[in-house]
Amino acid sequence: AEYRGYNHQLEQESTKYFIPSSLPLEVANKVEEHGQPRYLEDEGFYVGEKPVVLQQNKNILESRLLKHGGSDWFGPDGQVDLLPNPVTEAPTKPWVDSVDELDPCIETTYVKARGTAVEDKYFPGSDENELQIDIGTIIFQHHPLMSREHVLVSDITKMYDEYRIIRHKNYITFYTDKLAALRNAAATLKETLDETTMTEDAFSAQRTHINDFTAEIRRTTQQLASAESAERDMMRRIIEVWGDIKSIREKQGYNNTSVKLVVKREEVNYQQDVHHWELEVENQVSERKEEYDVTIAIAHQEEVRKYQVQLQEWKQNRLKLKRIRKKMQRGSQENLLDPNSEVGFPVEEEELNIAGNIDKPQKPDKPAPFDKDAVRNDVMNQLLANRRNPGEAKISLELTHTVNITPISSVPALESSRRRAMQKSTMSRVLFNGREVFLTDPKTLTSDFKLNFGSIFRVRIAQWPESLKVELLSSGLVTRTLISSIFLTIPPTTVHSGNVRLGPTEFLSTRVESFNHEGVGSNTPFTLRPNDASPTSINTKGVIISSVSWSLDQDGRVLAPKGFVERDDPISGGNPLKINDPVIAIGAEGLQDPESLTKWVKESRLDPNDPENAALVPFMQGIKDGEGFPFAQDYFRLEQLQEEFNFLTDEEFSHLNRLRLLQLRDKEVAEFRNISMIPCNEHEITESAFTTYERRLKEKDSLQSIDTKGLEGGALSAHRVEVLRFRQKVKDAVLHRFYTSRHHHTLQDMVHEEQIPDIGTLGSSMAKIVEPRRPLKPIRKTRKKATSQNLNEGSVKILINVVRGYNIPTRQSAHAHQQNRRGAVQISSSSLMAGQTLEPNSKSFLVSPFVAASFQDTVVTTSVAQGPNPSWNEELQLPFSAPNNDYSSSNLQKVDDVLFIHLFDRVTEDATPTDTEDPTTIVTRLQNYWLGSFKLPFSTVLSFESQEDTELLAKCAVFMADCNKRYPTRNVKTTVIDIKGESVLITRFIRALPPPPELIEGLNPGSKEATEKLARFVSLIPFVSDNVTYAGICDLWSTCDQFMQMLCGDEEEHAILLLNFFLHLGKQAYLVLGAAVPEGNTAYVLTLDQTARDYTIWNASTGQQYFKGDPHTPLQSVGALVNDKNIWFNVQRQAMPIRMHFDVTRPADWKPFFGATATPLPSIQPESIYFPPTDQSYVSNLVDVIERTLKDKCKDRIVSWRPRHITRWNRSGNSILRQIAKGLEESITKNDGRASEHNTQILSQLGDVRFTGYPMDQPFTNVESIVSAVRSTEVHKIQDPDVEFSMAVHIHAYPSSVLAVWVYVAAIVNTR
């Protein structure tokens, strides 16, 4: 081998290799030829920051680029164009699917987090550094105590959210409209396409447009099919999961959640669907034919044309070559060089061979013809798979929460153990730099697995913040168990308590938990469905809603450490302080004077075009003469592009449900003011959240635009419409005034402190120890009140104590009404009231009464007693459900449900056996006959704390303090609140007012008939409690004219009006403030008969009267008497009317408010009230409306109430009852006893029948209340197969549209 030296090797490498130089190159070589370098930064353009590269490496790169002609890589300044820093802020690695193939070199090694290097762990001024931490709500997406039903409900909730997003985006409608528009545009272009009248360029351009439209139609059709398929698949999956939920509920026999899937079906027109279906098929087939013509047929024609051209050229070349070869074979080279030759140029042998080897062009294959039938079948199959078929109903899904959760007392032991385990308390602990700084109060899981902490606390820090961790702890008997750890981010200095917002932070725990009850556990395999092949496992996970910010002092200064995070980010190389504090970031934190700072900014020559220096632009502008220093703004605005930055139109912005919900809650609208938590996402708020609010607005608007026909098919007259409008106006004014004044708080409203024990309280406590024990006279202890946050559905019940009954009507013998004919008639009528007695010569049988209480569609009954004076001593429990599961005081006062107490007589009747039964068998039937009832508004059952104004007159305060000290439980008032929100002395409401002249015309003003007729008139004004009308507000009193304008009120308004009427008649009358059963604190009227010296107590709401010595009067306690001159407080030992003296001139019995010489205060009542006459045409129309409603709707409802029996109607009975109902009101007002004497008329006209009738009267409010009253009689529960029903309606009109509605409903059984 031959040896070659090193120099020879270098020579060889220099000829083959290029070694770029590391020396800098001339700028002229890197710019355009004869060009000059251009420096954009000097011209004022922002050039940004380029990544740091060593100059030597940059020179080598430039040398290589110039060597290979890469002059395009250089900019106008002669420097290499470099992209922004390619280094990411956080290191990443590709995902490795298989763990077995993981290379040890890239295996993740977990190390402890390394904090930012600081010079000193502690910093000065720690008293001024304060963090504010808000721990709001923790929502568990999966919890170990969830049952299988909860897991499925979580899945269906997520899928339903996706379904709602799909429906909200409404892709199907969008693509359908787009497809229709494209087809219309394409059809228009095809109609105007005319080759004869258009130029060639215009014709070609329009043909191109048509082809583009055809392609876009094809894409839109595919997108529409995908959208329809996705929606149907989502609905199918939701229905499958709902089926699994129902299967689990049926298998386990109880409900753990309230979720219910409602599938709404909308029937369609089959013929119309078939027409649209065929039209769509024809459109798609024709569009595919056009696509075939454009993409295949026309392309094939172009290929055939090219083929023909190529074939012709090939034939010509072959002909020329044949001629040349013939001449060459003859050896005639001269002919080849002859200029007159056809070839005309010398041809080499090699060229002749190559030219002779050219292949013949291949003829393009003819494409398959368009198969219209195959395309039609393909289109049909796609439509069948993706779209709704013809005649198939339109289906929509709605996920509601209307299913009742089974109470814990009705579930198996394992489920009961799981629910009891949910009652364990959970708390959160906050650790700052690894040290505990706060521990929240323990909370229990709600039914939807949420923990509502609502804790805000502040931490003064003396160390540099390194970590902030929240630990969830479960409390046990001895120790606490860690559920999960959540790390929160230390906020920048710009985030403070004034602008911070609550945000979600997800967490996950891999802790293994398993139980021996129905809880599925965490990170533990379990079988979700019975047919699952393999078990599944879910980790505990959820979201914490929290915020971390820096506190603000009284001057609004952020209490954050100065120079927080001073060092550059070692990864990104940027300075994060430029985002938080640009002044500190540029090293000018020592400059506090604005003028000095402005001077420094000018000398530092900062780039004004750099976005990072946007906050310092005002400092660069300097201070002009006569102007203040332009402080930096915290926003950047481009007025020129304002429209481009409007991501939503004003209309879309106004339709955001979450924004609308926030605005309504801020305005404290009744339906939204108690909402504590609002979802963070728009799709989580459904349109159903505004249903009640929009319905109320619709009703309110309808009052403004209602015509004389009114609502409910003509159930309102013009006067009633004005009443409703005035009532709504007063209600809106009162609510607005109250919610405005509610924001004015005192120190006592915000700070609640227990009294510091002193010698007095300690002495009384010691005295209780030595008190004698009196077991027979126990002291009532106040039950500890449960907070509304700890109440849920099923935990609140209404307790009813049924003690005994007196003078229950008894059954009459069959021969009492035979009247020389066969058969027997039994009449049960409300005209036989409790307390009435039968005729002495009539034979009576025992009655079997029982009490039934109904509330919110739940009915409970007592046991069946015997005799007219039964004794039960039973307690009935009725479940109570608050609206929206909100048990706050203000929300409960909006409940307008009514508690009905019914009295029934249970009768055992003989029934005829059917053909399938043994004839020797004796069949009996238990039948309940309604004897009477009364109703209690929920506002009467509920007891609320007073919210009255405390700024009363000094004398009233002293008088009330003395009264409450002597007898704290007695009802007494000196001042009340009127509808204007002002405190008014109670005596100002009393003044003699003339009643309607029609009521006392022709009567002696002092007669009993006149007083009873006035009481009847006042009782027919609808009763509505203030707790329902003005929810959340103290009891408001209205004057008599306001009362008649609103045509509704509670006990006080009824009593004041009746009292003023009695005073006009010249009677000595007083307003009684006391307590009654079942009203509670109420107002009655007391009158004194001067001749008999006898006192009568009037219940103005019902029109009933009681004598002072009546032991069955509902008034149980008298606290005060009031007239237009004075207020007298009852200082007697006894408060029951039967044991009292009502002589107010006796100082030992009554304490007066004013002295004997005091001058009465002027009244706020008007001198007289106008009572407009009731339109008789309106009354006649209303009778028709009610009868039509009862016949049309109630008949259908009675049929629906009796699903197992045939319902028949007796027309002759209707006419008889109609005649009887007309005389009932007159007999009631005259009290002549004819109300109970109509039995003879019924018996004489109906013949041999068993008749059960219930005449009812009530004030008119709306038709629905009349339907409820008919149902409450339970006449539809009569199971006799031969029963027939009759019904009649009569309305007696009083002035001012006060109406007495009589409804007579009866069941008739033919006994022949």
Automatic annotation (TrEMBL):
Domain CEP76/DRC7 peptidase-like: 1035-1153
Presence of the UniProt keyword Coiled coil in the record: yes
Domain CC2D2A N-terminal C2: 390-562
Matching SUPFAM superfamilies: C2 domain (Calcium/lipid-binding domain, CaLB)
Domain Centrosomal protein of 76 kDa C-terminal: 1185-1307
Keywords on record: Coiled coil
Annotated coiled-coil segments of the chain: 172-230, 297-324
Cellular component terms per the entry's GO annotation: ciliary transition zone
Source organism superkingdom: Eukaryota
Residues of the DUF5523 domain: 1-112
Keyword Protein biosynthesis carried by entry: no
Regions that span the bilayer: none
One of the protein's GO biological processes: non-motile cilium assembly
Name of the protein: C2 domain-containing protein
